[in-house]
Design brief:
742 residues; alpha/beta; Rossmann fold; 4 domains; 27 helices; 35% helix; elongated; DNA-binding; P-loop_NTPase
DNA sequence: TCGTATGTAGCCCAGTCAAC
DNA sequence: GTTGACTGGGCTACATACGA
């Protein structure tokens, strides 16, 4: 690490885009351990922010293995389960901190412990509190690991001086406020009159000077609010009303003085606490603008005036309430990384899907290094286009049309069969379970689990993947779909990041993104072009990319492709039309891989050849003998079905000959996968009734497993459709390859 | 005698795509 | 996002031949 951690006045701030699975966290841990031994930090601590507490605990254990003293710091409302009480939180009386926050007091001195005039007020649960119990470890530790979210809240005093703040993985989302649309200020609460602008001294005496100053700025703002139409506050109107950045910042400070001190102390009887809180808050139904929220509004306006744009973070909207329509200002803004956690000192940020547009607002003057990526020669990627794996295609809501719901049922059945066949083809290929990891949207994962997953398969959903290493040895990954909120949602996030209205790019289509040509880079040097979403505003596009492409990159990274060898290859199947910065070995169409009903039958471990038996054994696939017969006549035998028929992907398959009892029954054969159906005779009798004849004939000699999807293209490929265009390799490259092969 | 295999005609519906 | 037209697959119904 070539950083001077004591540089003045500008400490080093470095952001490193490091590819998924390269081992950036391990390298960081070793560097941090070395840094502590070098004493370059002069005894100051290192704070490491990670997305979630479970990742913090993993890193703590890794530091302990490096003989470094590390601890995980959790907030008051974080889970702290015990065998007796799995619901336990760090704070044993969460109502006390919530009450303190309602009247905007410091939680520690109003809920936990404080000494006033020689008298110590203390929470009765203080000595058994998980939050307090971690403080001695916090004081002693060299490294403090905590969730990104914590870094945007006040640091505990016991932390002491911080010499380096490490931000592991993308952190910007934890710093956004109001993006759920719930940070509202009613216009009634902002209308200037004594009840809404009265300020108080710290001793709860009326502060008339502050009240007059705040009233003057509220009057200016009211001129704008009273005549504005819905949408972002206009910078022209705000300026015309006489507001300036200085006046807004002054008003932000004055807003805090509207809250009187209720005089609540740690250990106070909850009834008395609520009575005191009620005495400083307006009565139910009276207009009120929470001071913290009003202060945030002023700061958003000040920033917009300074930068000469409308206030995207403060938007006039109509909301519905019990009393009808209420006009409100909807706020969304960006919190700052807190100084107490080291935000003003040296910062190192590591993220595989880092976007400068989302880092610089939080870390000004950050230096963003060139991306560091690694080759993955033992990873094979297939991308399947036009797969029905969107939320609508797999899991439409209850209010969806019957036609869409039945289509979704078919899609789920097809995807389940595909998973079962893929799992069979990869069985035993992983050093430890599972062999196959499915990554999809949460609703899709729930639906697939409900339908039943093979034992060697695990399914997880997007958005909870970063940093997890437990699937490093899976043999296969199937990534289904993508995450992509509508433009209006992403634009709202961007407004919170920048406070600036996004550039519009959507023309006549107001509800979706524009499309532009994207190119899948093929491993053989060619490209496959297809349309992809984009947004004209750089920040909106950065967020869109992070949520969509970034999450898919994180998903692929779970397989730790960088660490694979010829003996432990990884096969990735991408069921999405999104173009990613990875080399793709094969681009297929859903028609090429979509399992037919014969293949679904094969997925359960048996291939029957008799149409009547097919209909009897699988009534959900074929409703009648004729239906099974007709499909048998029409269908060509493809990939998965053929795999089991030929015993190529199922090393344990066996052919049996049988004849049901009764007149007119002829001899027929079937092939069974003995891992899934160990007793074919019992299975046949359960499905078809007593047998007049049964004989195990045996299977063909086992052959090396072949990826089933690749087989779909070999030989009997279906006439598939594709959204994109395949561009062959330039002739000179083909010639070079031919020369090399020759 | 019963059940299966094979062939053909025609209706229904799911999937797709263009237009709005 | 919705709607409507188009298309091909899925299924039923009918008939005939064959084998246990």
């Amino acid at each position: 690490m070539l950083l001077d951690f004591n540089a003045e006045p500008r400490p080093p701030r470095l952001a490193l885009p490091v590819g998924v699975g390269i081992g950036k966290t391990r390298a960081m841990q070793r560097s941090v351990a070395g840094l502590l031994r070098s004493e370059a930090l002069r005894g100051r601590k290192i704070v490491i922010g990670v997305p979630r507490h479970d990742l913090a605990e993993e890193q703590r254990d890794a530091f302990h293995a490096l003989d470094v003293d590390a601890m995980v710091w959790k907030g008051r409302t974080a889970p702290d389960p015990t065998p007796d009480n799995p619901e336990r939180l760090m704070c044993l009386d969460p109502s006390a901190p919530f009450d303190a926050m309602e009247v905007e007091r410091i939680v520690e001195t109003t809920s936990c412990k404080v000494t006033r005039r020689g008298i110590t007020h203390i929470c009765p649960l203080y000595n058994s509190c998980g939050y307090q119990a971690q403080k001695p470890r916090l004081e002693a530790a060299q490294i403090v690991l905590t969730a990104h979210d914590t870094l945007f809240h006040q640091a505990p005093n016991e932390l002491g001086a911080v010499g380096l703040l490490v931000l592991d993985e993308g952190f910007w989302g934890a710093g956004l406020r109001g993006t759920d649309g719930k940070a509202l200020l009613t216009l009634d609460g902002l209308r200037p009159h004594l009840g809404t602008v009265q300020c108080w001294t710290p001793r709860n005496q009326e502060d008339w000077e502050a009240t007059a100053d705040l009233a003057a700025q509220r009057e200016r703002l009211w001129k704008v609010l009273a005549s504005a139409t819905n949408g972002p506050l206009s910078v022209v109107a705000l300026r015309a009303a006489g507001l300036t950045p200085e006046r807004c910042r002054q008003a932000a400070g004055l807003e805090h003085r509207r809250m009187r001190n209720p005089g609540i102390t740690p250990g106070m009887d909850p009834g008395e606490r609520r009575r005191r809180i009620a005495s400083v808050l307006p009565k139910e139904g009276e207009p009120w603008a929470p001071p913290n929220r009003a202060a945030a509004m002023w700061l958003l306006i000040a920033e917009a005036l300074e930068n000469d744009h409308d206030v995207a973070g403060a938007v006039l909207v109509d909301t519905m309430s019990e009393n009808g329509t209420v006009r409100c200002l909807r706020l969304a803004w960006r919190a700052d990384l807190r100084d107490g956690w080291g935000a003003q000192g040296p910062i190192l940020h590591l993220d595989a899907t880092l976007r400068p547009e989302l880092v610089t607002p939080f870390i000004p003057e950050v230096t963003i290094a060139e991306p560091l990526m690694a080759r993955e020669p033992h990873v094979r990627v297939r991308q399947i286009l036009r797969a029905p794996v969107s939320a609508k295609a797999l899991t439409p809501g209850e209010d969806a049309k019957p036609r869409d719901r039945s289509a979704a049922e078919n899609h789920r059945r097809q995807v389940s069969a595909l998973i079962a066949l893929r799992a069979a083809s990869l069985r035993g290929r992983s050093a430890s379970s599972p062999d196959l990891l499915i990554i999809a949207q949460k609703a899709a994962v729930d639906a697939l689990r409900a339908a039943g997953l093979p034992r060697n398969v695990q399914a997880v959903h997007f958005n909870a993947l970063s940093g997890i290493d437990r699937w490093h040895s899976v043999a296969g990954l199937m990534v289904l779909g993508r995450t992509l909120p509508a433009p209006v949602t992403v634009e709202a996030l961007a407004a919170a990041v920048t406070n600036c209205p996004p550039l519009s790019s959507r023309g006549d289509v107001a509800w979706w993104y524009e499309q532009e040509e994207r190119r899948i880079a093929l491993a053989d040097g060619g490209v496959h072009a297809l349309p992809g979403e984009t947004h004209a505003d750089p920040t909106v596009e950065a967020i869109r990319w992070t949520i969509c492409e970034g999450e898919l990159i994180q998903a692929i990274g779970r397989g730790r492709g960088v660490n694979r060898t010829a003996a432990t290859p990884l096969e990735v199947d991408l069921f999405t039309d999104v173009v990613l910065p990875v080399a793709v070995h094969e681009v297929l169409d859903w028609d090429d891989v979509c399992p037919r009903r014969q293949e679904m039958m094969a997925a359960s471990g048996v291939v029957l050849e008799n149409a009547a038996d097919m209909a009897r054994a699988f009534p959900d696939l074929w409703q009648s003998h004729d239906a099974a017969r007709q499909q048998k006549a029409r269908s060509v035998t493809f990939c998965y079905y053929r795999d089991l028929s030929n015993s190529r992907t199922s090393h344990s398959s066996s052919v049996v000959a049988y004849r049901p009892a009764g007149p007119g029954q002829k001899d027929r054969t079937a092939r069974f996968d003995l891992v899934l159906i160990p007793d074919p005779r019992a299975w046949l009798e359960a499905k078809l009734g007593p047998l007049a004849h049964f004989e195990m004939i045996g299977g063909e000699a086992p052959q090396p497993a072949t990826p089933p999807i690749a087989d779909a293209r070999g030989g009997a490929a279906r006439p598939g459709r594709s959204r994109g265009r395949h561009h062959p390799r330039p002739p000179h490259e083909k010639a070079q390859q031919a020369a090399g092969e020759g």
